Amino acid sequence: MSGPLSGKRIVLGISGSIAAYKAADLASKLRQQGALVDAILTSGAQQFITPLALRAVTGRDVSTEMYDVNNPLAVAHVELAHAADALVVAPATADTIARLAHGFASDMLSVTALATAAPLLVAPAMEAHMYAHPATQATLATLRERGATLIGPRAGQLASGRNGMGRMEEPATIIEAIKAVLGRHGDLSGRRIVVTAGGTREPIDPVRYISNHSSGKMGYAVAEAARDRGAQVTLITTPVALAAPYGVEMVRVGRAVELRDAVLAACVEADALIMAAAVADFQPSDVAEHKIKKQPGQMTLTIELTRTPDILADVGAQAAAFPRLVRVGFAAESRDLLENARAKLCAKGLAFIVANDITATDAGFGTDDNRVVLLDADGAESLPLLPKYEVAGRILDRIVPLLAEG
Question: Please, which residues have CB within 8 angstroms of residue 400's CB and are 6 or more apart in sequence?
Answer without folding.
Answer: 187, 188
